[in-house]
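dumping this here so i dont lose it
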């Protein structure tokens, strides 16, 4: 498994098991989490070493008053927030993409064109139904946001044509 942060390769996590293609799903998910944690740790240590100061969030981007935990399972692109299932597949990748952009760049506004051109989303070339997927994602987030700490982020998110 390769470890990527912001599109850059930071390392490779290698694990072996005696049988061929014998990793159970829960082991693969655990390795994925370990790899993501290692990547985040590497990025944080690099930022601290360079004594970098993060840019403040842009106007309109509101940080939630409470923190929340996001888990992304790359096997099926399912996303859990505070241990509650939110969404999976293409819409899950969309959510992870939007969250990463929010955290890295402080942005909460995105254009359809930008999303369509984002290679990491791996959108289908033909009939990607982006608008329908975004609508489903917004409905899921709004339905769950009322009881969650991440409602402020959902309220600040907007996608336009």
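and the seq i came up w/
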């Amino acid at each position: 498994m390769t470890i990527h942060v912001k599109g850059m390769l930071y390392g490779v996590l290698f694990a072996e098991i005696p049988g061929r293609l014998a990793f159970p799903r829960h082991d693969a998910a655990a390795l994925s989490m370990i790899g993501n944690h290692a990547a985040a740790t590497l990025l944080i240590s690099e930022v601290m070493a360079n004594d970098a100061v993060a840019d403040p969030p842009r106007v309109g981007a509101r940080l939630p008053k409470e923190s929340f935990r996001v888990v992304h399972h790359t096997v099926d692109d399912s996303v859990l927030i505070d241990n509650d299932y939110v969404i999976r597949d293409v819409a899950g990748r969309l959510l992870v993409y939007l969250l990463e952009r929010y955290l890295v760049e402080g942005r909460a506004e995105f254009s359809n064109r930008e999303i369509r051109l984002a290679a990491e989303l791996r959108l289908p070339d033909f009939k990607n139904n982006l608008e329908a997927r975004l609508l489903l994602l917004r409905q899921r987030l709004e339905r769950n946001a009322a009881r969650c700490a991440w409602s402020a982020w959902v309220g600040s998110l907007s996608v336009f044509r």
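The CA atoms of residues 67 and 149 lie 7 Å apart.
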